[in-house]
Amino acid sequence: MTSDTPELEALFDSIAYAPEPEPAAPEPSSGDTPDLEALFDSIAQAMTEGGEDGAGAAGAEKVFARLGQMTRGLHDLLRELGLDQTIAKFANELPDNRDRLNYIAAMTAQAAEKTLNAAEAAKPIQEVISREAGDLAGKWDRMLAKQLGVAEFKDLVRDTHRYLHAVPDQSEAVNAKLMEIIMAQDFQDLTGQVIKKVLDAAQKLEKQLVALLIETTPEDKRSAVRPDLLEGPVINAAGRSDVVTSQEQVDELLESLGF
């Protein structure tokens, strides 16, 4: 028996028999990149702090800064892809980097079409050579087995003579088609498809980021930006000079906003 008071005994008993807390379940992984996670956190914080003027403004500034950094990173990536030295020699005349990637996609599709057309043209020629060679081989086997008459033997000699004279021309035609296939391999069909898909996705994302960046631009920064650049990208910008339509204008917009 202990000398503790009833109050201490009750305290010790409550601690000893208290249920153990269940371990916290791990938070599910979203699979987002650190930049996206930081952007989402900034947006959530800005929404939470929206009731307080000072804190809400600070949260909006964080969202704006994160959007600007992401837009600048994507924009620079598009530029690096367009300036790759291995493709620049094929498209030096193109002024816009994204046009260079579009040029590669178009040339890749053209190369694939040339390859298929050349193969389809060479196949019948090769089939004729193979079929006639097989026919002549069978007749010569019969001749060696002494199964041909004089008339048949004369026909065999004439057919063989004609075949031997035709083969060089047919072989030259096949070689020409093979050369077309070899020359067309500067660009690969699958590579062109991947480039086009990546390009389309990157361009759409860049337009969305630019539009969102413009919408979240603080009032104190709008005065430093040309008004026409604040119009953002549009679906059909042909013939318009009051919207963001080129890499140079996106550059100018990002630089004027401090990115």
TrEMBL record:
> Which Gene Ontology CC terms are recorded?
bacterial-type flagellum; cytoplasm
Q: Does the keyword Hydrolase apply?
A: yes
Task: Provide the GO MF annotations for this entry.
Answer: phosphoprotein phosphatase activity
Tell me which Pfam families the record gives.
CheZ
Major place of residence? cytoplasm
Any idea where this protein resides?
Cytoplasm
Give the start-end ranges of region Disordered.
Answer: 15-36
Keywords tagged on the record: Chemotaxis, Cytoplasm, Flagellar rotation, Hydrolase, Protein phosphatase
GO BP term (any one): archaeal or bacterial-type flagellum-dependent cell motility
UniProt-listed PANTHER family: PROTEIN PHOSPHATASE CHEZ
The record's comment on protein family reads:
Belongs to the CheZ family.
The record's listing under NCBIfam families reads:
PRK11166.1
Put simply, this protein is called Protein phosphatase CheZ
From what organism does this protein derive? Parasulfuritortus cantonensis
